[in-house]
Amino acid sequence: MLSSNLETLVNSNRRTNRLAKAIDLAWLGQTFASLCWIASVMAYGISSIGDGLQLAAASAWLIANIASLRANAE
After folding, report:
1. Helices 2-23 & 25-44 angle (0-180, nearest 10)
2. Which ranges of the chain would DSSP assign to H, the alpha helix?
């Protein structure tokens, strides 16, 4: 019973930490910037290798931001 309550508390703290990180202004700004970068590449089209690399970089940045939520919550 005590073990179950402790596990529930730990899981609740992880969710709270993840939410706090998601609302952090720096995290939101970086995530918004990466989404804008992806949108601009899509709007102009992928017509060269450089465009593909730009899309890959913006996508990697977005994935890193999302992964940071999970890493900081654990």
Report:
1. 60
2. 2-23, 25-44, 49-73
Q: For residue 15, is it within any domain?
A: no
Structural domains counted in the chain: 1
pLDDT of residue 11: 59
Tell me the per-residue pLDDT of 30-55, one tens digit each, with 9 for 90 and over. 999 999 999 999 999 999 999 999 99
What is the spatial distance between Cα 19 and Cα 11, in angstroms, rounded to a whole number?
Answer: 12
Determine the Cα–Cα distance for residues 31 and 7; give it in Å rounded to an integer. Answer: 31
Q: Is 20 domain-assigned?
A: no
Residue 39 belongs to some domain of the structure: yes
Q: With contact defined as beta carbons under 8 Å apart, do 41 and 69 qualify?
A: no
